[in-house]
Amino acid sequence: MQPLANITPLTPATNSGSIKISNVGQVFTTSSQTVVALEDVSLEVKPGRFVVLVGPSGCGKSTLLMMMAGLRQQTSGSVLIDGRPITRPDPDRVGVVFQEASLFPWLTAEENVEFPLMLRGTPKTERRAKSQDALKLVGLDGFGKRHPHELSGGMKQRVSIARGLVQNPPVLLMDEPFAALDEQTRMTMGDELLRIWAATEKTVVFVTHSLTEAVYLADEVLVMSARPGRIVDRLQVMLPRPRTYDMLSGDAFSSLRDRIWQHIRKSA
Amino acid sequence: MSAHTLRRLIIVFLVILWEALPRLGLIPELFLPSLSSTLAAGWNEAAEYGHALMITLYEVAISMVLACGGGILGGAVVGSLPRLRSLMMPIVSSLYAIPLVILYPVFNVWFGIGSESKIAFASIYGFLPTMLGTAAGIQTIDPQLLTAARSMGATLPQRLIHVIIPAAIPTVLAGLRIGGALVIVGVVVSEMLISSAGIGYLISRYRTILDSPHVFAGVLLVLALTIAFSAGVRWVERRASIWQTGTRGGQSDGEVSATALPFAA
Fold this sequence. Notes:
heterodimer, A: alpha/beta, Rossmann fold, six-stranded mixed sheet, four-stranded antiparallel sheet, 10 strands, B: mainly alpha, MetI-like fold, disordered C terminus
């Protein structure tokens, strides 16, 4: 059903999208004090899994994500993606989707999607072909010439996802990508993301504040505690896929959400 | 009736008033010579005005390059280095509040009464707002955009060319608009004070002999100069940034007040 042919093929076996984080710690030192943001965090994500990180504000879940993106260095421990350490951003292995407003407002949607390709000097025609495929994948066929201010919040995030996928990295990191959207759009975007994920078979690590969103999207939810950030629980979400709206009111769904809430309430 | 046509009509009306009031004797020709006698005065001395215009344009052009070039460069450096910013900005901001025209006699002593003193004065006059605008523009760039670029593997030079510069363009242009207008003000005002050439000099000289038509002819020339400048800025703005989402409404008010300054000084 989806025209993915040019996006998904040829993922080399070595770049399958496994993540291994071992004993990672992060300490900030300011002039007056030392803050332990993350303490002894270890986790493993198998290729193609959808993992969601939740936790109270300031627990370091975004920091952890930024480490996987190579945007921040851990104080101790190691972050491996496909067996190799991440020390700086590597768009071949990792695509990142941020909150709203990370698109360049002076570029059109397709130019935004092509930005990472432009940085590495991909020829224009090849760039255009790839951005068209990526935009098609996220359901924005025909919107390539629009500027971000001409797109709705949900459409902007679709462009961001297309930009994260355009280089076909095995891992997609998402830092509260739907936090700025209204409730309905958020639900729709959740379904869209699951469709894209199923079609591309990426490993996804997704940070959110919304417990409902966490359970709805995830194969596995990792719950973090307040500072110092640690992983206090791992929940396997066994709900069948595709996920549907009526699962939200089911007992299985509620008990998972309640269990996460207990953790968060304890540390808040 | 659209605002545009209304504005045109108001201008036409003022032009008619300008011609009619002195002719009907409602205003003495000494205070306001009619438009036709002003134009005639200018036409009769066309060579003199042309020569003065060339000198003024030359001074404006050099000052514009110094003020805007220096302002953008200085603003970019100060805006991107937090330490330097906290050191410099208070000084620059308070300098901005000083009526710099008090320094003009000093420039006269240093550079003489020729073009050099005008260029020095107008350059400094236009430099400050351009620099402040650019520094603010660099400073207000959304850090999220830089993080996003970094996550896609952008190197520092790539971030500068593809993120920082385009993101700062609208604020820089706003600074240029004010800085450039002040350069014109600076040149004309300094010509009117102590000098030997230029439109400002002509205006001031004819004023001392109470030759109103020739004074107004000079005023008209300065007016034309500022209108040409602001049309030029608008052209640059249109070319340089595509993402102005209708936020630049009453910009013409600013131009009017800036062009009004030479007559007040």
